[in-house]
Amino acid sequence: MKIIGILLVPLTSMVVLWGVITAVTATESLELREYKTLWTNLRHPAYKLINEIQRERLVSAKHLRHMAAQPAVETQRSRTDAAELTFRRLSESSKDESEEIRTQVNAVYTQLNRLDVIRGEIDTSLSDRLHAVESYDAIIDTLFGLHRRVALIDDIPIYEQSRVVIDMSYAKELLTREQAIALGPTTAAERRTFTQIVGNRRFLVDQALGELDPPLRDPQVALITSAAYQRMRMMEDQIISGRSPGDWLSVSEELAKSFQDVQMRASIDLNARADPVADEVLNRAHLLAGTALVLVIVSIVFSLRMGNRLSRELGALRLAALEVAQERLPHVVGKLRGGERVELPEVSVASSTVEIDDVGQAFSTVQQTAVEAAIGQARLNEGVGHVFRNLARRSQTLLHRQRIQLEDMQHRATDPDALEDLFKLDHLTTRMRRHAEGLIILSGATPGRGWSRPVPLLDVARGAAAEVEDYPRVTVEPMSGQRLAGPVVGDVIHLVAELIENATVYSPAHTQVIVRGEEAARGFAFEVEDRGLGLSAEVLAELNERLASPPEFDLADSDRLGLFVVSRLAARHDIRVTLRGSPYGGTTAIVLIPAEHVADPNPEPHVKEPARPMRVVRSE
């Protein structure tokens, strides 16, 4: 993974660079495509709404001059409402393209909400002609603000022409304002406003014509140089001087219509120009992105092939090392402990890298050294076992002879004090015999002590308690009459004695050690409970793990010989020994003897055990 990670750093950088190039070029194309979308959803419906508002402004001005009936006004208002509804519906899908567009569209919504107020003022004659016209002018100004905001595009030529076309459209809007003001005789305030509008329109037209390119300028020039336009300019001068030309409405209406057609064709032409530019940008994006992608793919393939080859070789070396550490060496050590001979194949890793070959050879050397060390350790353990066994056997012989002499002396003794001393020596001999058997167990051999017939489990518990130095503190409670199979009696007595001795050693001298026994579903269970300081959960878990899976005997770990002997004896007879906390704060050892080693009570009559707990006492 580290090798791949090192390779991924430059590869990731290349991929990021490719992504940036692709994103930049593709974004340009998408923005040009978006120009067409904004035209469809915002600008085109806005133009239609402007036309309807211009017509409503004109018919409202006629109504205020008593030149149009109310039904004509209502009809035009219905058409305006329909255009407004279409604009609102289409603009909802595109107004969130940017924060600026959203702000401008909301401003248009705010002005459109004033339509009902404007209409109410007109219907109730609360608004004069000039105020009504200027109220409609404010709505149209926000719509043209939307045009200018939406016309922003990264392509400079298209943006410049679009801006000029919008100015020409606004010049047409100024013409329709003139038309609405000068329908008849005008007041001084109306003439001042009319004069300002005429000056602005003429300046706007003269400035815009010089900035249009020929395909867009020629239709505009043809319209400006027409006889109808020159006639309208003469009428504008007459209106400024205070006169009212009779055919002003028809001439201005015709020119406004012509201006509208020319501006709409220009807007559609600019919208169509964005597509080829977008296609060119997109083709350039495809070329750049494709070239960069090919380079990235070649780099990735080459890097990954090199990395994969090296990773495979390292992976094979890793698997070989794991096999040596987890399978081969433990298997070899196990065979060596069993006294078998082993043959070691070398660690071989097919690699074209010199360093990996060297590491493989080093692992072979390490394996050979480890096996030699294991052989030496096995021989050492075997020698130690022989020493333990020989010493234990010699001690057992001497102790056996000592017990025979002690029994003879006990039979001949008549002095009570001397007899008590002999009993103490006999108990000491018993404990020494158990320690000698412990050495035999550590060596891996069988102690040899056993019974031919089943023994009551109560007697087993008592016999275990009798082998403990501090036996007066041990209380063996009454238990059922089940019997223990003779071949395992000696080992169980030794096992329970070790647990009792641990309980007496690691608990205060004034406390009792309780030994209980009862029948279980899967055999018979002994409980040895002390009232000492107890053990932590971590230590209990560690000791239970040792008791469940006896480790190899370590000469350096001689402080826990008793538990090691217990684990060996338990494993020999499939006995389960578990340590847990005692309710009294100490530790409880549970010895579960399998049912195969437990026999039913002896059917022969026997003396009933007293109800009170029995204490094992050798002499008093």
TrEMBL record:
Broad enzyme group: transferase
Name the EC number(s).
2.7.13.3
Picking any one GO biological process from the record gives: phosphorelay signal transduction system
Q: Is Aminoacyl-tRNA synthetase a UniProt keyword of this protein? A: no
Per the record's keyword annotation, is Transferase included, yes or no?
yes
Superkingdom, according to UniProt? Bacteria
Q: Which InterPro entries match?
A: HATPase_C_sf, HATPase_dom, His_kinase_dom, Nitrate/nitrite_sensing, TCS_sensor_his_kinase
The family database entries (SMART domains) matched by this protein are listed as: HATPase_c (SM00387)
Which keywords appear in this protein's UniProt record, sorted alphabetically? Kinase, Membrane, Phosphoprotein, Transferase, Transmembrane, Transmembrane helix
Show the segment(s) annotated as Disordered: 601-620
Q: Please provide, in alphabetical order, the Gene Ontology terms of the cellular component aspect for this entry.
A: plasma membrane
Record domain Histidine kinase: where: 492-597
User: What one GO molecular function would you report for this record?
Assistant: protein histidine kinase activity
Catalytic activity reads: ATP + protein L-histidine = ADP + protein N-phospho-L-histidine
Identify this protein by name: histidine kinase
Lineage of this protein's species?
A: Bacteria, Bacillati, Actinomycetota, Actinomycetes, Streptosporangiales
